[in-house]
Design a protein that fits this description.
Number of strands: 8
Mean pLDDT: 90
Order of helices and strands: HEEEEEEHEHEH
Shape: elongated
Oligomer: single chain
Structural class: alpha/beta
Length: 274
């Protein structure tokens, strides 16, 4: 009854079904790993955000890099803003997805080194070649608090570091590039300002990280595994349906053949009496 499974068509179908099972299982584990990575990332961000603030010099220095475990750490610094060498970071959005710029202002520490501070977002409604109106930073010596961030790269952000931009405009925040431009030591990475609060007239502070959601990856993993379990069930259903169709076709063919061979014999002509 199931000799048709040895046909070329059914051998191909069976091989495809057998291939789908490990592929779907692997896709499920891929989504599971993404879920685990997201959970681990959320935990790391939460530890950094809730950790007690530390002086920025304890976590970064000139010419180095910010460790991944120190991303989002709360840091403090004492010094003065240098608005004369302020630049804007182009094509940045705020919490409402409006396009503008981030204001990057050097913050000079007591030992002469510079900390790059992202003071927040301002709208940029005019031509891209012109600078928007930027509120001035606080004057005099202040105590700054913010979130420590590593230097931005094209690989991590997807933003191309365009060349030939107008004066005081950049695409990526790079402590190395700013050190070359300023001619002084610059601490690696930068800080997203949290305090002092610039108020309604100042730049819109950059929103902190969202570490509450875990995404749909676990649900996707379960779906892929359910699909993998359904593959053999689907194969059995197709086999049984094909076998039934073949039985019905054979039965109809048999009935048709019986009808053609077994008719009633013609009656003989009646004898003529005399």
């Amino acid at each position: 009854m199931y000799r048709f499974l040895l046909s070329r068509q059914w051998v191909i179908v069976t091989l495809v079904f057998l291939l789908l099972i490990p592929v779907m299982i692997e896709l499920g584990f891929w989504q599971l790993h993404r879920h685990e990575h997201r959970v681990e990332q959320n935990a790391r961000i939460e530890r950094s955000v809730k950790a007690d603030p530390v002086p920025v010099r304890e976590l970064t220095g000139p010419g180095g890099s910010v460790a991944e475990g120190d991303r989002w750490r709360q840091v403090t610094a004492e010094g003065t803003f240098d608005p004369e060498h302020e630049v804007v970071v182009r094509r940045r959005t705020n919490s409402d997805d409006k396009v503008g710029v981030h204001v990057l202002t050097p913050f000079r520490l007591g030992d002469g080194t510079v900390l790059l501070v992202n003071r927040g977002w301002v709208p940029s409604d005019g031509p891209q070649t012109s600078l928007p109106d930027i509120p001035a930073p606080p004057s005099g010596e202040i105590t700054l608090a913010g979130r420590l961030m590593p230097d931005e790269t094209t690989a991590a952000s997807g933003i191309k570091d365009l060349k030939g931009l107008p004066d005081r405009q950049i695409m990526l925040i790079s402590s190395g590039q700013q050190a070359d431009a300023l001619g002084v030591p610059v601490l690696a990475g930068y800080v997203e300002q949290v305090s002092p609060d610039p108020g309604a007239d100042g730049p819109e502070l950059v929103k902190g990280p969202d570490y509450g959601g875990i995404g749909p990856h676990m649900a996707y993993a379960v779906q892929w595994w359910l699909f993998a379990a359904a593959v053999p069930v689907g194969w059995v259903i197709l086999v049984r349906r094909d076998a039934r169709d073949r039985r019905e076709a054979a039965a109809k063919e048999a009935e048709s053949g019986a009808g053609g061979d077994g008719g009633s014999p013609e009656p003989e002509p009646a004898a003529v009496g005399g």
